[in-house]
């Protein structure tokens, strides 16, 4: 098997317009494609990350909420790499996003922090 990277990460949101605003305007991910699938009453929004990875944002009517935070089975969190975590935190806080205090990874000695998307999905910033 010749796997070369992650193509996309899919997220199901509760309020499509709110999540679209968060990921496009607050996080700054450019839109690749947006489709409304009438037969499913569902939106699918493809967003570009700088390394070529994509985020897929879905809306589904009556999708169940996340069972617990953060230790539910399945996806635990998304982690985005940044060269300057302090600058990234300041930008997020300037946009009204609450960010946890910056911590040091005990194993790698790198700085990291967490914040949440509109549905409470944990998002990590990890300084590269």
Task: Please summarize what this structure is.
The protein has 128 residues and is α/β, with parallel strands linked by helices. 16% of the residues lie in helices and 35% in strands. A hairpin with a 5-residue loop joins strand 7 and strand 8.
Notes on the protein architecture:
This is VOC family protein. Helices cover about 15% and strands about 35% of the residues. The protein is an alpha/beta fold. It folds into two domains: about 60 residues, 2,3-Dihydroxybiphenyl 1,2-Dioxygenase, domain 1; about 55 residues, Roll (2,3-Dihydroxybiphenyl 1,2-Dioxygenase, domain 1). The strands form two sheets. A four-stranded mixed sheet has the order 1-4-3-2, with helices on one face. A four-stranded mixed sheet has the order 5-8-7-6, with helices on one face. Strand 2 and strand 3 form a beta hairpin. The longest helix is centred in the first third of the chain and has 11 residues. The radius of gyration is 15 Å and the shape is globular. The relative contact order is 0.19. The model has no long low-confidence stretch (mean pLDDT about 90).
